[in-house]
Amino acid sequence: MMSNLFLIFDPSTSSNxxxxxxxxxLWFLICPYFYWISPSTFSISWKKLLKNFFQEIENNLKxxxxxxxxxxxxxxxxxxxxNISGLLPYVFTSSSHLVFTMFFAxxxxxxxxxxxxxxxxxxxxxHFVPLGSPIFLSFFMVIIETVSNFIRPITLSVRLMANxxxxxxxxxxxxxxxxxxxxxxxxxxxxMMILLLLESAVAFIQSFVFVILISLYINES
Length: 221
What we know:
Layout: H1 41-60, H2 69-85, H3 98-119, H4 121-128, H5 138-150, H6 152-177, H7 182-220
């Protein structure tokens, strides 16, 4: 029995090197479909998914900002592969750590802030006091808008991390029931399969929500 439930998220497997972080490069092992004689069902489904995703991103972005679709799509594929691979047995889930999620959220947010300060400082300041706001509420509106802008990367990072951690904790708790006997393992197995399917959906949805929010932030800049 583990002394701490959150030890399953400990990336260290030795005192010298955190080998679990090698799971970040597992998605490189996926062979592209054009290396096969005929595309598989998985390849066709993946191609349709990316096509619909590109369309969704293009609808969110302004016409002169569609050049950002490539980096947003690459980020979506990377995070999705990490989330899905983390559901496999004995594979470390990197997206359950803030160091992973903040690595994507903070640099993008800081770059957008610097872009607005350098190129669109007047538009940036105008957003702090929305049009039609009462004069006596202007001071409070500036504070509220400033706080909301500063917590964007934090909420973006914590949302992905918290959703991945919660599902993995439930799976770990249900798997621990099997230690009490075979009858408990048989009873918990259907529930674990349903929860695993739910976690697969969560892995996709959270990857999609992460990049959609980033595209909205880019669209505002």
